[in-house]
Amino acid sequence: MRRQILASTSILALVLCSSQAWAGMDEAKAFLDAEIQDMSTLDRAAQEAEMQWFIDAAKPFAGMEIKVVSETITTHEYESKTLAKAFSDITGIKITHDLIGEGDVVEKLQTQMQSGENVYDAYVNDSDLIGTHWRYQQARSLTDWMANEGKDVTNPNLDLADFIGTKFTTAPDGDLYQLPDQQFANLYWFRYDWFNDEKNKADFKAKYGYDLGVPVNWSAYEDIAEFFTGREIDGKKVYGHMDYGKKDPSLGWRFTDAWLSMAGNGDKGLPNGLPVDEWGIKVNDKSQPVGSCVARGGDTNGPASVYAIQKYLDWLKAYAPAAAQGMTFGESGPVPSQGEVAQQMFTYTAFTADFVKPGLPVVNEDGTPKWRFAPSPHGVYWKDGMKLGYQDVGSWTLLKSTPDDRAKAAWLYAQFVTSKTVDVKKSHVGLTLIRESTIQHKSFTDRAPKLGGLIEFYRSPARVQWSPTGTNVPDYPKLAQLWWQAIGDASSGAKTAQEAMDSLCAEQEQVLERLERAGVQGDIGPKLAEEHDLAYWNAEAVKAGNLAPQLKIENEKEQGQTVSYDELVKSWQK
Question: May I ask the CATH class of domain 58-183+395-465?
């Protein structure tokens, strides 16, 4: 009897196991039918094969409850509300995908790194932290993970070469530390319809002596801002510029997100200047940060940086709506879509979905935009070979303090939401492109005319000049919080641009010095250099074939230069 009971139990277990596997594929097929359809770079058979791999790989973790976290943007809302449920239904792993503010994500990450407690099983945090993750060695090297402990849960169809942002999540040791999940750039935004108006073109040419078009340099941007500010269009007074100035943490992002590199701060090098990056932080040949101030060979308070801040202050006061001075990032973001702004030095392409909504003053009746994205103009200190803008690359990060089984289950979810099966559909929802195959998908060719140049940009050779914060920054959370306070002092008038940047570089070096004394980052942590004057460090840079810190250019108002948007796009396509 006992033998019969055991045999019956075994048969029942096999039936249940088979039933669960079958149910998983049933759920997968229902998901593919309802949500994905042909919005994938894979055909239906390949989609089902990829879903079957997830079902099989997840079996050891069925019933587990996993918690992950990301900032609140459209892409992550889609993951949290739609993809997490689908993954749970298909694999049996219950996912809670929390959405919180960007600063809160970093705070939770810091808490786990400092305490060792497993707050979340995986984080989507900006690749701006790559220098932090590499130096503190508290994040798993995904290169090691995929080859060893995580090999059995790494999708053979992951295709890392298809991700366009892995250079940004790879450390100087050559290892990948984060897997890109969403990516967007800050680009120049302008009213294509106003720029092509014959009267505007004639008036601009008569006043400035060159054609109205996409500004190549900051001098042209300034001329265009002056030209449109106060001009009456469609019965409204319009503005030639938009920005924000409230002393708030978001003011820091405004500048760490590559404003200084656009001006010409730092050295040549892609994805980031080397040895001096766009934060003005210099490293030695061992990737050890050696200084931020000009006195140690850095460039945070050098002529290019001060020029960048001064232009920001001048333009905000002269050409933007008065209310912009008291706005934050979130408050200022939608303003150009209200139809009274001619151009913006950069806006985040994550706003694209909000800028193409029917009925907006900046959208035509047929759904095509009255505006376009284009590469941002550069300042007088900028040289060919430098980065020209910022890309946010929100990326999956697994901390070593997360138990292996929980990390494996979370890694499966991270791969699911970035998989080739899912990525095209997810990219249409959030417009935060991460895969080359998705960018080239026919559905984006069809949709491109309604996205104002977003797809043309991502298919262009220009995109390599846009990158996140690089590996010179040894502790992003500690250093990033210094920026908004220093810039806020300049924005409020409490300090001059030079005084604000002098203060900022000194505060950054205090953090570098503390890290050096503590020795917590080993032989890749900071090692501060001796102090000398600007002329000394400039001569040393020139001798080594580098740029930063550059000497002051006496005439920072160069001749304005523009290019036709339509000709620019044609040159990309060639």
Answer: alpha beta
